[in-house]
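Notebook entry, structure prediction.
Reason for the run: the old model in the group folder had no record of what sequence produced it. Starting over properly, with the input documented here first.
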Amino acid sequence: MKIETAVTLKDIVQAMFYLRYSRAIMKILIVLIIILGLLIMITYLSAGFSNSQILIYYLIIIAFTFLLSPLITYLYAKAGYKSNKALQSAITYEITQSFIKLEAKDVQSSFTWEKVYQVRESEKTFFTYQNKHVANI
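New structure, fully documented this time:
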């Protein structure tokens, strides 16, 4: 089976957010940060607003979790996309029972299914991992 596709910046950003926030450890960390933030807020309110430093810590935690982390993810995805000319061109995947072949501008890659570490699928994308950290989209 041959699949021809073009990857857009939007595709890369969505893939990065999926890869970053779909893991169980990230979901657990977000829940723990929310619980920690609520505990800090409760402590702040029960102290009668006498210690404004606690509120500042809470705001920093919230800002990092819900503003800075997604912003960094977006900027990282954008920089990666802009620096990879092959990713910006048309990509052809040839998938058979024995191998996967990828062809893009000035890039060719081929590997057998035995070399595939893991396959993950999101709503719009599938990822074939060559190892724990490297995936083809």
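Summary: The helical segments are 9-21, 24-46, 52-83, 85-88.
The old model has been moved to the deprecated folder.
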